[in-house]
Amino acid sequence: MLTGESKESLAVGMIIPVNVRVVKDEFAIVKLDCGIEGRVEPNEHDRNTGMGIKGVISVGQTVQAKLVSVEYKNFLAKLSIDERDIKNGYRKHMYHPHGTWDERLEADDKEELREKDKSTGRTQRVINHMLFKPFNGMEAEQWLGTQPNGEKVIRPSSKGNDHLAITWKVADGVFQH
């Protein structure tokens, strides 16, 4: 598509932000971020309010809309701003014909996730944060011993994988967990 969109990146059912350009009694014309024009019909706005489309949106406003249909050749889209449609969200349909799913690869992946770190007996955590270190409490104190006062470390908690602990160097030899 000339807009840089494809049938995967602009698919029916997606919730997308649109900018309202024109609001009439019967419909509204909106513009998608990619430049495609869209139209919101009167039956595609919030029916709970009892207001016309003019009472729901105004020119210049950016609203969330659900893509009802797309005419790729004409660069036109039909959208819904009904709260119920938007609340349901978008779920990409994944189709796997019978016999094409790699059961062995799935089992290998699950086994890899279950693999535990031999030294701690816990699953190794990977957290992308500059203060996170895979230390236990003693290792954190040893590492912080060479650091200046006020330094801190985020580390795995002994309470489980859904907890983190912070160790803070208050003064030389004094640590708060």
What does this structure look like?
With 177 residues, this protein is an alpha+beta fold. The chain folds into 2 domains: 15-88, Beta Barrel (OB fold (Dihydrolipoamide Acetyltransferase, E2P)); 121-176, SHC Adaptor Protein. The protein contains 4 helices and 8 strands, in the order βββαββαααβββ. A 5-stranded mixed beta barrel has the order 1-2-3-5-4. A hairpin with a 2-residue loop joins strand 6 and strand 7 (160-171). The longest helix has 12 residues, at 103-114. One of its GO terms (molecular function) is nucleic acid binding. It comes from Verticillium longisporum. Residues 13-84 form the S1 motif domain.
Please outline the helices and strands:
Elements: E1 15-23, E2 28-32, E3 37-40, H1 53-56, E4 62-71, E5 76-80, H2 83-88, H3 103-114, H4 137-145, E6 152-157, E7 160-171, E8 174-176
Parallel strand pairs: 3-5
Antiparallel strand pairs: 1-2, 1-4, 2-3, 4-5, 6-7, 7-8
What would you call the structural class? alpha+beta
Fold-level CATH name of the largest domain: OB fold (Dihydrolipoamide Acetyltransferase, E2P)
For the biggest sheet, the summary is: 5 strands, mixed, barrel
Q: Please provide the count of β strands.
A: 8
Can you give the mean pLDDT? 82
CATH architecture of the largest domain: Beta Barrel
Secondary-structure element pattern, one letter each: EEEHEEHHHEEE
Shape: elongated
Strand order of the largest sheet: 1-2-3-5-4
**Straight-line distance between termini:** 55 Å
Specify the CATH homologous superfamily of the largest domain: Nucleic acid-binding proteins
Report the helical percentage. 10-25%
Pfam family, one: Spt6_S1
Protein name: S1 motif domain-containing protein
GO molecular function: histone binding; nucleic acid binding; nucleosome binding
Domain S1 motif: 13-84
